[in-house]
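Exercise 7.
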Amino acid sequence: MAPFRTLRPRHCALALLGALSAACGPAAAPDETGSTGAIGGGGSDAAGDAGGSGGEPAGGGGFGPGAGTWEDPIVISALPFEVAGDTAAAPGSEADAYSPCAPDMPEGGGEIVYRVTVGATGWIEVGLAEAPGDEVDVDVHLLGAPSPESCWARDDVRVGMPVAPGDYWISVDTWSGGGGPPRPGPFVLGGALVTTADDCYSSPIYCEDGDAPYVNGVPLEAPGDPGCPAGMALVEDFCIDRYEAVLAQVLPGDALAPWSPFAHPEGATGRALSVAGAIPQGYVSQVQAQEACLAAGKRLCTDAEWLRACQGPDETTYPYGDAKQPGACNDARACHPAIQYFETDESWIWSELDHPCLNQLPAGLAAAGAHAGCASTEGAFDMMGNLHEWTADPAGTFRGGFYVDTAINGEGCLYATSAHNVWHWDYSTGFRCCADAG
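Solution. The predicted structure, written as tokens, is:
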């Protein structure tokens, strides 16, 4: 079996395979919080022998009891970690497929399930090394709950996604496609948490085009203020979403399915939801935002409504008052995400602002309501910073700035961009909905 190797950000896609890992250079050292820019840890290059079903430490990390089932997962109590296992000795085979991450991918062999506790907001990255050749074929899944129906990301080598503090699950399962029998066998699993992104010309994450994890599931809205739909605050004679919008995909029969906040909703029917703690939807045009609001029984806000909700009854410059409070809102990321992710400031990067990884960098797009001080008088959060917010202006306007800038086109609530038509979208464009008070 190939030893598990550390994975450097972006440049060493084959580092997990062992033979090419030397080209990656030394692994980044964990900081005092356990963060590192690389998968692996514990100062160990080699995994040693894989043993048992899936709980043999192969390097760093802490491990607790557990059978490796969905009901009783193996506990990973520290990051970074490295652990060896063998799906040939898996305790069960309950999952035949995983949704919404890969519903059509057959995973009918045995699986081993782990639970990892994340203590800080950041990016979790998990990698898998298996025996070389075609004798073993196992895949790795990241999940938000102990169920194959809560899979947020899947790959045969490496997965990563933004996370908040809490518990997450990892399943190593045996692929059963290709017309032959499943091919279980030994593997080494490793993971790390990245919490900082200080070098503006070096991406701290390994994320590729098409990587768009389903980090929200289908969240539930809290009741609205009296006279307002769910998730909304009352502002004079209208209602406004308390939080920047999340999308759920509308299926036949009006059922809702998860949608990734890092994916452009082209070809999908989306419904806008306003939910604290969810990752808000970027990559959306004004046309799509309006459709999602209408699907929720709401509409986009007029410019006058948006400004009134942001500025409050006293017409302040910022949602919280007239004096700027650095750090109150998510509006001052030091590194531009495009420069950091692509590791250059050459002009071509500005044509790549639709890339799904831009909003997944640490210290970038924040969960809705994460900045408690960025609230308006009536309790609308993040109207300054985080994401640009489309209004109903037929010429195309988005307001409030985003997590890099809230000053170039006006300060705070007065920030407005009108340079794009209603079909424009990029990583920074989001929205929230309004409705008439009833």
